Amino acid sequence: MTSNSTFIIVIRFILLILVQVLVFNNLNFFGYINPMVYILFLYWYPINDQRFFFILLSFLLGLMVDWFSDTMAIHAAATVTIAYLRPTIMRFCFGANLEFQNFRIANATQAQQIVFLVLLIIIHHLVFFTLEIFSFGNTLLILKKVLFTSMATILLSLLLKTLFSVKKQ
Amino acid sequence: MQQIINFILKYKNFLLYVLLMIIALTFTIRAQSYHHSKFFNSANWLTGNLYESTNSVSTFFSLGIENKKLVEENKRLRHQLFNQKKDPAVLLDSTKINYEVLSGQVIKNSYSLPRNYITLDKGSSDGLEIDMGVITADGILGIVEHTSKNFSLVQSILNVKSRINAKIKNTNHYGSLTWDTEDYRTAQLNDIERLVPLSIGDTIVTGASSSIFPENIPIGVIENFEITTAQSSYHIDVRLFNDMTTVKNVYIIKNTQRKEIIELESKIRND
Q1: From its phi and psi, is residue A95 left (phi > 0), alpha (psi between -120 and 50) or beta?
Q2: Where are the domains of chain B?
Q3: Which pTM value belongs to this model?
């Protein structure tokens, strides 16, 4: 990892937290939909980096968002789960392409990129709302929240992803 | 020994994940049954200052509306004062004062979660303490759950942990006000006996058996009610007077006799 990419990751980490807690936490579409765009951090993170450190960093990211939004440690639990599952999801989405030495997510097809992002978001939201509501009697409510918030998050994440896309090489 | 180290090295990612997950779940579950974590809330130096500075920008755009609200409230209070039969000087006698009122501003609000918290720009250095009541000009808002030096965290009435003693205005029928997370405009009032005559539009106010809020602070009006089949009490939906989405200026109420009340109650419990 070069020092340049470290710098970009640090900036991205801070900016995504700020954008999440200052803008997207206050959207409240229909009273309860707040898209969680900070998940893009896990989408953008370099592939071949140390996994141990990545999991730790993702936990910290979730914890910071929790800290600002008074949600105990729900964001942290959901984020660390997708951080741990990320290699499995990537193998599912990109398949054999991952084996190439210089593979980058930006080089994959558009459909593969979107599936990867959507899977990250849905797994995150499932863990998040299960913990938030914390009673299995409310499965329907959990599914409803997962569905609508996921749609909002996916839409906004795709927009942000296109805006700040890395140039193909 | 070698094998144990090999095992840890082989599964270090999984072990790290399990460890972090346990930490997160411990935090979460503890906060659901007890108080919110002492260090882990938005009433601290970093988050408080960030929210305060962004708030100073956004407040600027709502100054006109806030001013109108405050004038409206002043008008109402003056009306009460001028039509009072007692001499106002007697009312301000410091030996007879039960409640002190402090003011503050909301710098972070939330109403879309099952457990909502509000952050205020006043803290222990301004005289705020845990378990003080927080109200707005329209009605009640919540109870202070944590204070730091300059900020404090308020458990909103839109929080599944919230239990507030409430009654129907001008009667002595008490119940407890809770929230079922469905709608931020309505809260639920339980434990009112089925014998009590109710009608839609009745006003709900805070009850006397709370040592946090003074009696008769407005909460809302009855939107609809039903008798629960299992129990012999009403389940009442209360439409809140407060618009929980736009709260800005708040009052924090200190009950100067609360310490004495709690001492007395604990004495009875110990006997």
Answers
A1: left
A2: 2-27, 41-256
A3: 0.85
